[in-house]
């Protein structure tokens, strides 16, 4: 599913215009990016936890040439899904005996 498909799904479920749901998605992404950029985590109950993560500098290798090159340290994000989200993902497997 891409952004437009997601926006259409949200618009249909909430009886909103697609342009408004796109603006909603963009705003959520902006707020998440700004908050995590300030080195703060974001917890969405029953969905998951977004946590900033500082990757350290390390050496990498160009797979085509084999040349070793440094990879600079950078900010990244880790996502840990919440219990409610995992339950929703696995609700179809309840009857499968897993």
TrEMBL record:
UniProtKB keywords: DNA condensation, DNA-binding
GO biological process entries: chromosome condensation
InterPro entries: Hist_DNA-bd, IHF-like_DNA-bd_dom_sf
GO cellular component: cytosol
Gene3D superfamilies documented for this protein: IHF-like DNA-binding proteins (4.10.520.10)
SUPFAM superfamilies listed in its UniProt record: IHF-like DNA-binding proteins (SSF47729)
Ligase is among the record's keywords: no
UniProt-recorded Gene Ontology molecular function terms: DNA binding; structural constituent of chromatin
Entry annotated with the keyword DNA-binding: yes
Family: Belongs to the bacterial histone-like protein family.
Annotated protein name in UniProt: HU family DNA-binding protein
Organism: Parabacteroides gordonii MS-1 = DSM 23371
């Amino acid at each position: 599913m891409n952004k437009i498909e997601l926006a259409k799904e949200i618009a249909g479920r909430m009886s909103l215009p697609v342009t408004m749901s796109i603006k909603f998605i963009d705003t959520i992404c902006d707020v998440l990016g700004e908050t995590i950029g300030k080195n703060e985590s974001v917890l969405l109950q029953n969905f998951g936890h977004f946590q900033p993560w500082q990757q350290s500098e390390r050496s990498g290798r160009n797979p085509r040439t084999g040349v070793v090159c440094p990879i600079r340290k950078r900010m990244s994000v880790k996502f840990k899904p919440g219990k409610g989200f995992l339950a929703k993902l696995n609700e179809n497997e309840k009857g499968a005996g897993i």
